[in-house]
Known about the structure:
heterodimer, A: mainly alpha, two-stranded antiparallel sheet, B: alpha/beta, six-stranded mixed β-sheet, four-stranded antiparallel β-sheet, 10 helices
Amino acid sequence: MKGMTLGRFAPFDTFIHRMDPRSKLLMLVLLMVGVFYSYTSWTMTFVMGGVLLIIILILLLISKIGLGQLFSSLKALWIMIIILLLINVLVPPVNASLVAFRIGDYVIYWDSIFQSAKIIIRLVMMIALTLILTATTKPLDLTYALEWYMMPLKVIRFPTHEIAMTISIALRFIPTLLDETMRIMKAQASRGVDFEHGRVKEKIKAILSLIVPLFMSAFQRSEELANAMEARGYNPRAKRTRYRNLHWSTRDTLSLAFIVLLTAGVIVTSVLDWNFIDMIFGIASLGVAL
Amino acid sequence: MPIKYRGVTYVYNERTPFSFRALNNVDLDIVDGSFTAIVGRTGCGKSTLIQQLNGLLVPTKGEVIVGEYVVSHNRKRRTKRIKELRRLVGIVFQFPEYQLFEETVEKDVAFGPKNFGATDKEALENAHKALLSAGLDESFYKRSPFDLSGGERRRVAIAGILALNPSILVLDEPTAGLDPRGAKEMMQLFEELHDKGTTVIIVTHDMNIVLEHSDTVVVMDDGEIKEVTTPTLLFNKENDRYSLETPLLYKFVKALSDRGMKLDLGKIKDIPSLARAIADARGKEQ
C-alpha cells in the first residue's frame, strides 16, 4: 500500500512549492517538449539527455522529494525496460550501423541498445517531472490553474467551470477512497480473505469482495455530495468568487524565463542539428595540432 | 485466550512527512473471558490498538501475544499462522455494513467460514446459526444484503464474523448509528456470547454501555493507556480529564446523594441494582 502515496502532495515550503501552479504547469509542458526532441547523433542525444536529467534531478532535490520516491516509482519500469530491449534487439532501427556483438549469426547493434536507453531516460524524466508537479502543488490549485488555462474556451461556450469542478471533486476523493479501500481490505482480511496469495479463482473472489463494497460506497458518497451541493444552491453557471486566489510573482516570471530559454536552447540545438560536442572536440584537436 | 501487549508502539507512515505516532509504548493485559471496554476520545489510538490483535497492523516496536500467537515487530518471533489467528480473533469494524458484497445474505455470511476452509455445507450451517443468533430469521437467507435496512445490514455483517466462531470478539463501536432499541438488542447479543465464554472487547463512546456490560475498562489518551479499572471505580471519580461522559444512571445516583441519600456506588450497574440500592437505603431510614 505504501506505493500508493506516490506523487502525493508533500506539505513542505520550498521555492517550488511557493510557485504559482499556472507557471509550474506551463514549465512542465515546456520541459516535456524539451525532453522529447531528438538529435541525429547518439553523442548529442545522451549529452542533451544528461543535461536535462541533471536539471530535473536538481529540481527534485529543491522540492525535497528525495530520490527514494523516484526510484520506487521506477521499480515498476523493470519489465518495460526488458521488453523495450527485446523489441529493439529483435527489430533493429532502420539505419543501424554500429555492431555491438554477434550471437552466432545474429547481429546485435549498439543502436538497439542506445535506442532503448534513450526511451528509458525520457520515461524517467517524464515521471520525475510529473512527480515534482504533483508533490509540490495542491491538487485543488492544479485544477484552478487548468481552469485558468481553459478560460479562452469560454468564448465558444465550453463548460470550463464544470470540467474544473469535476476534476477537483475527483481529486478530492482519491485519498478518501484510498482510506475506504484500506478499511474494506482490513474488514475482509478479518473474514479470512488473502489479497496476496491464493489461486486465480480465490484472487478474483478477493478482489470482488473489495470492489463491490467500494463501488457501493463511492456511489453513495457521490449522491450525498450532490445533495449537499444542491442544498447549498450550487449553480454551475453562476458567477463565483474564490477563497484562494492564484498569485503570480517575480519568482514565477524568472523561473519561467529560465525554462523558456532552456527549452528554446534544446529546440535550436535539435533543429539546427548543432553538434557542439564535436565542435568542442574539433577546436581542442585543432589546438593540439597547432 | 489471554491477550498481552508488551511495549507496543505504532507509527503510521513512518519516515514520511505524514508520520504519526498512534500508540506509544503500550503495556496491557486482557484476561481470558472478560468483557473489556476501551474508551477515550476520538483519535487516541483505540482502533489502532485493536487492529494489532489479528495482525492487520504489526507493531512498529514491541509485540502483542494472543494465546500462543505472537504479532511482533521482530519477523522471527512473528507467528506464521496469521490466518488461524484471524479466525480466533473476530474483528467487527466500525460501520461493518459496508463490507457486504454477495448476492444473498446467507452467501455473504458463509463467505468467512469458506475462506477458512470450511466446506460449503458447513459454511452454510455456520451462517444460519450466526444469522439466527444475530436476530435474523430464515426469511432473510435469500434476500440481497443491499435491499435491507441499515440496522439489518449491520446484523448481517456482524453475523459474518460470528459465523467464524471466534474465541475473542472485538467490536469497534458496534452501536454507532443504531436506534436505541436496536443498540440494546445488539448489546444483549454480545452479552449472551460473553456468557458462553467468548472474550469480548468493545470500543465505544457510550458510557451507559460501558457501565452496564463491561467488567474492565481501559482508558486511553494520546496513544497511551491511562487507566485499567472497573466501570464502577472509573465513574466514581471525576473524569473531565479524558472527556468521558458520566453514565445517566450515575448522574441520577450522584443527584440523589447530593440530596442526602447514601448509596453504595460500587454495586450499581443497571436499573434493577439501582432500585435495590434505593430500596435498601429507604429501608434503613425507616
